[in-house]
Amino acid sequence: MMTNPALAVEDLAVLHGEQALVRDISFEIPAGGVFTLLGESGSGKSLLAQAIMGNLPSTLRCEGRVAIGGEKTPAGDQSSRHRGWGRRLALLPQEPWLALDPTMMVRAQVAETYAVVANEPRSRARMLADRALASLGLSDAAHKYPFMLSGGMAQRVAFLATHAAGAPLMIIDEPTKGLDADRRGEVLELLRSAQAQGMSLLCITHDIWLARALGGRLAVMLEGAMIEQGEAAEVLAAPRHDYTRRLLAADPGSWPAWPAPAVAPDAHPIVQVDQVGKSYGRQALFSGIDAHIKAGEIVAVSGPSGSGKTTFGNIVLGLARPDSGSVQRAAGLALTAFQKIQQDPGAAFAPRIRLRQSLLDLVKLHRLDWGVLDALLARMRLAPALLDRLPHQVSGGELQRIALARVLLMKPALIFADEPTSRLDPVTQQDVFALLQEHLRDARCALLLVTHDADIVDRVAGRRIDLGR
Amino acid sequence: MTTISSRAPAWRGIATALAQRLLQAVLVALLVGTLCFFMTRMLPGDMAYRIAAGRYGYDMVTSAAAEAVRLELGLDRPWLAALGDWWQRLLQLDLGVSQVTAEPVMVEIERQLWPTLRLSVLAMFLSLLVGPLLGVLAGLKPGGLLDRVTLAVSVVLRALPSFLLGLVLVLVFSVKLGILPAAGHDDHGSIVLPALTLALGMAAVSCRVARDAMVQVRGSAYFAFALTKGLSMRQALLRHGLRNVAAPVIAYLGVQLVYLVEGVVLVETIFAWPGIGHALVHAIFGRDVPMIQGTALVLGLMFVLFNALVDTACAFIDPRRGAGHAA
Amino acid sequence: MTTAYSPSSDLVLDEAPRRLGRAQRAGIALLVVIALFALFGPWLVGIDPARQQLERFLEAPSLAHPLGFDQLGRSMLARLAHGARLSLSLAAISVLSAAIPGTLLGLLAAWRGGWLERVLAAFADAVLALPGLLLVLLLTAFTPGGFWPLYVGISLALWVEYFRVVRAASRILLASPHVEAARLLGFGPVHIVRRHLLPELLPRLFTLMRFGFAGAVLAMSALGFVGVGLQPPTPELGVMMIELLPYYGEAPWLIGAPVLLLFLTLLGLLLLAPEREAA
Prior knowledge:
The complex is a heterotrimer of chains A (469), B (327) and C (279). Chain A has helices spanning 45-53, 78-83, 106-117, 122-135, 151-163, 184-196, 208-214, 232-237, 242-250, 309-317, 355-366, 370-379, 396-409, 426-443, 454-460; strands at 7-16, 19-29, 34-38, 61-68, 71-74, 89-92, 169-173, 200-205, 217-222, 225-231, 271-280, 283-293, 298-302, 324-329, 338-341, 414-418, 446-450, 463-466.
């Protein structure tokens, strides 16, 4: 006997006026199965999820058919799917720590779903909530407020809160976004346990590692269309479309290892860090760290989150003072020889000044040649027209490349890159690192890198400094 | 992991806030006391003579009596020492005697405090009844009729500060229509206009604060999540919306307290309401320094006390404030 | 390899140029009219506001004298014009006296920190302990009816706001990533203030100035009204209001004029607010 698929989508399209933002979407999720939508930002995967949920903004309209658990509805009839929220269809949103009411305790938020949506009496709802929290190891968190939880804990709480009414189909939106790479395993476990309980999952992500680990079926999205669809293992092993190949190649796991720079063994280090330690109030972040970085070396700084990797970098740059130990630069280096690339490229530019003006100020200050900057920008494939915009009008990837050009203009001896690509898409990330590699090699510039992606550290760094105890 | 009670941060936050308010109360006392001290030294005319005249009457006063007062109040001593004496008396709550009525300041203030409290509490209550309610309703449909009407009314009311609004209300209700008594304090009707004046001014602002808070909450990620969890709009509003709207509204009360205390002074004077504000203005007229000090002190301390109450309410509603996080 | 410029930024929505809303234009229009009246009114009207012609007691408005005469036979229009000039000029001077030192000290405190910041902050806290009007009232008690206590009191109460806001905002800005980047790139304090601090501070300062101006005009008239500010026969809006209140029945336009002028000034200042502001 054939059971109805958990979700069946036919010819779905999302339109803004006459323009199709998402088109020709057809796929099925069998009961108890997993389906992954893989794509970068702007590919339309989030819009598609919203359309399936029935949560599109009123300026957009939807065409096609959506069937949840066998019940067919025209895709444009969003209110019919509204009624199923929580009971037939659940959503685990992006950045779930924002999805929890900051003024309500954790247990109350989970119990609420049991009480209000599943119609359990209050006392039983509380008991069920306690049991659910315990099943995911969150008993301690029951009486806490969301701001006291870590990202992963908040995610699990949100999962429980949205699952409590027993919806058999759950849409999961970018579950690994904003979490450290070492937390990805926990996310996978969460999703696997959901599947074990008989749930069907639709997972939206740009994380190839997660797509591979989840298995099931997979579709790759680009510019609003599904360019490839099939069993996850097959698609990832033998992609047919060019873009999929590029996407897979952009995964740091597939990068070729960077060749080690030629460093003379007795060369004088450009910066000498001896027995450096730093505390935050009464808590010691790290202590007794030694690092002698020579020209051209690529060093990764690792450690658990909150261990002060950014602070360490700032100490090396001279922006912060260590509580113990010393930092010594090589003699003869310019004041601006040490530079930094930030995690959020938008934050590194004065927000109300046009980019061209900011760069002109720099060129004037150091009496540099604008032509050099022009050449750098061209090599980074940045249209000159971008400079006439304000920082927030430019995409993250482009802004990070402009930041990189700005830094390289100073001919630095050391660049501290603090999570330079964690906010960027995989292909853009690969781009930035490729550019970085090219210029570091040319300028014999050292790189101090902070990244939570173990694959990147593996491929890129020559050695590591571990801040963890 | 040790189970830290999640209530602990709230108490810590309240303790810090209260300590700050205590410090503020001390500052108020110092500021008011010092200013009044210098007033006695700098007002035109011989201070001692006038105080003596106040006590014994202008016909009966002699230069000997004035001299005795001068010695008593230490007006002949170097000002630093005298200042110390002044502060000491202040700390002992010895507020002296009114120069106009010859009654102890404490007695006068006790008589005036109650009407002021009645007025302020009633005004605050009325404004909280009307303002946030209309604001929340307006915020549910941004751009809708109620929203635009409340915005227009709010702008007009804010352009009519307390004394102007009071004046307009007097002109409209008392003079033109002859309905409500303008001044006096004997019948119950007479609290209506002053309270209404203050309440309307505050409601105009709290309405918009509530409206903006409602719009922000409606657009927030946690509100959307409540809906996708399966709650109906009504359930989501009651369970998540209201508490999160209350937080900024109550926090804004702290700012409105400035308007309230300033307004109390003006409104009491316009409507001749026999409270502390009215007494302060009269004391300034009459150069009655002990009364100036007493009334200003009470008003200032009332301001600090109300602020402390608002701080406590804030910490309870929003646990992030209690823990010292930015809300 | 073709130099393909990344297309992604083309998807960035075109920002609508920042135009003034209807309300803001109305506010500007109101304020310009009132400012012109205050500036040129006394000269245009040409009549001495103190000249009494008792036989013209409460004379009704006419074409030659659009606001008629008050209870002492003085030209109401002349008094109104002089009153407007008085209020607006005092408010303007107070705001400037407060804004410039307040901003500079706030910047200095945030930048240097240390004992200077602590002393200034303590002083600001002391002033803030009392509501502004109360402070002004206490200061007027020194010389009731005088101009100086009003000016000093209002400026002091306003100064604190600038100091506090600029200091708090500057502290956050000085710790921000873009200032950090500017320092690393070798920029000095002047550049950082000019490009990184001031553009962020100016909107807030503008809001403070609006409120400060409104507050100053208000404080003057309120105190004039209750009798502890400027005294009759000075043509001050609040003083005029209390003088003309008894004649409301017979000559309502007389008290209506200063009330309307004050209301429109405050309304104009309020309307200047950008749409997103709450209060």
